[in-house]
Amino acid sequence: MPGSTDSASSSLPQLGDGSALASAEERRLGDRIAAELFRDPDYLDDPVLADYVQGVWQPLLAAARLRGELTPELDERFAWHIMLGRDRTVNAFALPGGYLGVNLGLLAVVSSRDELASVLGHELSHVTQRHISRLIAKDSAQTPWLIGAMILGALAASKSADAGSALMVGGQAVAAQNQLNFSRDMEREADRVGFGVMTQAGFDPLGFVTMFDKLQQAARLNDSGNYPYLRSHPLTTERIADMQSRLPLGAPHAVATAPTLLHAMMSTRAKVLSNPGVDALRSWLAQADDAGSRMLPVAQQAGTVYGAALAASLLREPVQARRYLARLQTLTAVDMQATAPVRWLGAEIDLNARDLTPAQLASLATSLGLTQGASLPLAQMRRPLLILQAQLALQLKQADILSQSIQNLQTWLSNQPQDALVWQTLAGLYGAQNQGLRALRAEAEAQAARLDYTGAMDRLRAAQDLMRSNEALGRAADHIDASIIDTRQRQIAELLKQQALKH
């Protein structure tokens, strides 16, 4: 399949790198925009949804490397970080420096991993083909500050026109926004490269075509505003025909495949978390209790019951939540892919309820693999599991369990040092162990991972003040910990200086 994709590309212009913005400058601009998005109330780091999206994103990155689309320089220099947003509008967007945004509204409407892969592959290709940097570099008169404000304003405008105009800076920003709209050639190249990447990664190419069908149907309905993706990536008949022509000869007419149990549950989770109001949560319970729901296809039933169990947990109704969970376990018993997410949901319900006896908590610890001396190897670690283990350790308050959870999180961070949520979780565990110095350092790392260097510096200074004010602590402080704090303070101070120069 990748071979047929490459041969079909000869008729398209090779846009290349040309006069693109330098990769280092693009990354700095991306960091500035991402720092604002991390502070946006809509930003959401849900470990379960993030784990599902990463299961699609990482194979795409690997395929882009294999095909040579992702060069070693960009691979090392750019962030390649996906940021989830609680927004219910159907949108995904590539930002400078390898940041990608995905709204929960998009996760709620895609019917399969293949459709999600088509969107992520397309956005990835805008970055690897340097489309964003080329557009930014077109007008050297536009300052990075103005471009960053314009991009943030455009994102805000997808949620609220008033909020967007508040961030836009006069006519110059409007002109810059027009310049940042991808050309038809760029859209077609992102389609072509994205198609090759997703097929190389093992996803069904039909997902690209059925996603186009969804967007085309939305366009025919005159786009009520729920599909900002259509405005930033307008469909054309040429793009649709081009993707259809790339399917193998004799391929069946593109029809969206029925969602798997796993995808149905994750799509529902996105819907629930994007609209957590009481009335909306109650509607999930009503849907699951409707007699007609039991006549739906199994995947649809699983999605509905998953939503009801999660909603009941958020409503602080653990008895109801566990009742729905039991139904869900029956529906998903034969699907190995659904096993872990259902187990995580059960633990989520139990931990939210906070009604387990010590013996039940100990049993839950065993089921989550959190036992003394039984650390998980990195290859078997899943981020949702690690966060649940930490939450459980905080409820158990047993020294050995706290230490085991800390060890697991440290192992994860050795491979994922920019994981803000894990750093913040680790800080809580250190606090429970009365290790104030390490807790402050972990809080600083969490702030730095969110690109809040001022907040990181504040935490590091607090750690140094703690050592100075407590002579006994200063003497007892591990020399390695003290050295790390001093080194990180100097590094963060330099990042703060660079950040100030960019404004």
What is the helix content? Answer: 55-70%
Order of strands, widest sheet: 1-2-4-3
Distance between the termini: 46 Å
| Strand tally | 4
Report the mean per-residue pLDDT as an integer.
Answer: 86
**What global shape is seen?**
globular
In the predicted model, the low-confidence regions spanning at least 5 consecutive residues are 1-18, 161-179
List keywords for this structure.
503 residues, mainly alpha, 4 strands, disordered N terminus
Description:
The protein is mainly alpha-helical and 503 residues long. The protein is 69% helix and 3% strand. It has helices spanning 2-7, 23-38, 47-67, 72-77, 104-109, 113-128, 131-137, 144-157, 161-167, 170-179, 184-200, 206-220, 228-232, 237-245, 261-274, 278-289, 298-314, 318-331, 336-353, 358-367, 383-396, 399-415, 420-432, 436-449, 453-469, 471-476, 479-502; strands at residues 43-44, 81-85, 92-95, 99-103. A four-stranded mixed β-sheet has the order 1-2-4-3, with helices on both faces. Strand 3 (92-95) and strand 4 form a beta hairpin. Helix 20 packs antiparallel against helix 21 and helix 25 (453-469) runs antiparallel to helix 27 (479-502). The longest helix is centred in the C-terminal third of the chain and has 24 residues, at 479-502. The model is unreliable at 1-18 and 161-179 (pLDDT under 50).
Task: Write the SSE topology.
Layout: H1 2-7, H2 23-38, E1 43-44, H3 47-67, H4 72-77, E2 81-85, E3 92-95, E4 99-103, H5 104-109, H6 113-128, H7 131-137, H8 144-157, H9 161-167, H10 170-179, H11 184-200, H12 206-220, H13 228-232, H14 237-245, H15 261-274, H16 278-289, H17 298-314, H18 318-331, H19 336-353, H20 358-367, H21 383-396, H22 399-415, H23 420-432, H24 436-449, H25 453-469, H26 471-476, H27 479-502
Parallel strand pairs: 2-4
Antiparallel strand pairs: 1-2, 3-4
Helix pairs in contact: 2-8, 3-6, 6-11, 6-12, 8-9, 8-10, 15-17, 16-17, 17-18, 17-19, 18-19, 19-21, 20-21, 21-22, 21-23, 22-23, 23-24, 24-25, 25-27
